[in-house]
Amino acid sequence: MSWVRTARLLIVSAAAGTLLAACGSSGTKLVSPTTTTTSPAPTPATTAPLENPLSIGANYHPKIDPAKFTNHVANRYFPLVAGKTLHYRGVRDGKPTEHAFKVTRDTKVVMGVRCAVISDVVTQNQSLVEKTTDWYAQDAAGNVWYFGEDTAEYQNGVVTSTAGTWEAGVDKAQPGIVMPAVPRVGDAFRQEYRPGVALDQATILSVDARVRVPAGTFSRAVITFDKNPLDPSKKERKWYAPGTGFVQAILHGGGHTETTKLVK
């Protein structure tokens, strides 16, 4: 994923009609999901978006019914309002970065699902270093799904890498979940899936965190612990505030360190 990409993986129970997600404690030190504390879980969603369970194995292949998805993403922890741009600042490997996350008015059909199109641009010293287009859709239960990305890294205005690009339904790639409808501590889920290219996973650590960034102080934020099996040294935590979405990330590993905070 374009925000610089655990433990147990999410299982969707078609029989129960509920999507399990995850909740825990806040802070800024990277920790293992097993060290978090739990708090009472919210009432789960009652509408199952899929006809078969998600699997964590090689046969991971969620059955997607386009009739159960929309490009109007209203999940309170990941709202995508067409025309809105969120601005972030941070530090990547000691160098200041700026980051613009724009919800365009465009849509893209992936696996028959009409997705919202997001423009995600990262610069350092006003020089483009990364440009990504992401595709998201929300299912009938309120879970936000990630259907792929077209990403490129730049140096001196020239594309140096497109590694990480993937599209659900192409080259064995499958969509994943970026934010459950009802986050609960301890559960985890695939965020993306393309063998050898995109395998990011996340575990929810907290649903009642407090986080302060330049844009303000947010309560009852969700914290995720993100992991990339293709590079196990990378460990990242992300904060999502209700009504706003992504507000902060802290990444260590893979030879890099990076912080990202919402400015406005």
Structure, explained:
- 0% of the residues lie in helices and 50% in strands.
- The protein has no helices and 18 strands.
- The chain has strands spanning 12-13, 18-19, 69-70, 85-92, 95-110, 113-124, 127-139, 144-155, 158-161, 166-167, 174-179, 188-190, 192-193, 201-213, 216-227, 235-241, 245-253, 256-262.
- It has a 16-stranded antiparallel β-sheet that branches.
- Order of helical and strand elements: EEEEEEEEEEEEEEEEEE
The largest β sheet comes out as: 16 strands, antiparallel
What is the overall silhouette? globular
Number of helices: 0
Radius of gyration: 17 Å
Helix content: under 10%
Structural class: mainly beta
Overall pLDDT score: 83
Q: How far do the termini sit from each other? A: 21 Å
Proportion of residues in extended strands: over 45%
Q: What low-confidence regions span 5 or more consecutive residues with pLDDT below 50? A: 3-55
Number of beta-strand segments: 18
